[in-house]
Write a structure and sequence with these properties.
alpha/beta, Rossmann fold, two-stranded antiparallel sheet, 11 strands, EC 3.4.-.-, hydrolase, glutamine amidotransferase, hydrolase activity
Length: 230
């Protein structure tokens, strides 16, 4: 199954030199699960010709805000709506989580709660999972068709599902602890020192990225020719 990665930003130069860009991180995260990948750098106005260019779609994180005025934001929202209308599976991570919600009727804002950085714990269904996070913006109003499937006290809509077609996550399962260390060093200038200290203290701790990677792959590979049953 070919997954089109819509890349909405680029990793910091220092992080990219050691760990690759965001699309490389997703290929490592989801590799070996029956998926292949092709990247379009939509942040650079490189868009696929149609929704049929891939079997499923994934929108990455970004340092930009979904509500900001960039020339690629409007076309990306149009692409999101076209993907949904075409019935293709769609996954969004961090900025991807936010821009999908915004494109489908939700609202994204810079949270007064500030930055969520480092290992965070979420109620995910009947379980608790931990994932690396790096964000200040949040989905503050979900679209009507979305269901919240993960949350914590800091982030009410930490993961959303839209029926059997869209699955989005606010945290970063693609960020290894080594990537987090690079972000703390090279992109932590706007983050309060106490939150960076917390993130540093968690760099040796395990997380559930592999579990969420499995859920993402299973979601892409779901047989959508079979109607869901109650």
């Amino acid at each position: 199954m070919l997954i089109g990665i819509l890349q909405t930003g680029h990793a910091a130069d220092e992080v990219r030199a050691e760990h690759g860009d965001y699309d490389d991180m997703f290929e490592r995260l989801l590799g070996g699960r029956g998926l292949t990948f092709r990247t379009w750098n939509v942040v650079d106005m490189d868009f696929p010709a149609s929704t049929d260019a891939a079997d499923g779609w994934l929108i990455t994180g970004s340092r930009h805000g979904a509500y900001e005025d960039h020339p690629w934001i409007g076309p990306l929202e149009e692409s999101i709506r076209a993907i949904v209308a075409a019935g293709k599976p769609l996954v969004g991570i961090c900025f991807g989580h936010q821009i999908i919600a915004q494109a489908l009727g939700g609202r994204v804002e810079k949270s007064p709660k500030g930055w969520g950085v480092g290992r965070q714990f979420y109620a995910y269904g009947d379980e608790e999972v931990s994932l690396n996070a790096w964000h200040q913006d949040q989905v503050v109003q979900k679209p009507e068709m979305a269901t919240t499937v993960a949350r914590n006290a800091f982030c009410e809509h930490a993961a959303l599902v839209y029926g059997r077609q869209v699955f989005t996550v606010q945290a970063h399962p693609e960020f290894s602890n080594a990537v987090m260390a690079g972000l703390i060093e090279h992109r932590g200038g706007n983050v309060p020192a106490d939150r960076l200290d917390h993130a540093r203290s968690q760099l040796e701790a395990p997380n559930d990225s592999a579990r969420i990677a499995g859920d993402i792959a299973d979601f892409f590979l779901l047989d959508r020719t079979v109607e869901a049953t109650a």
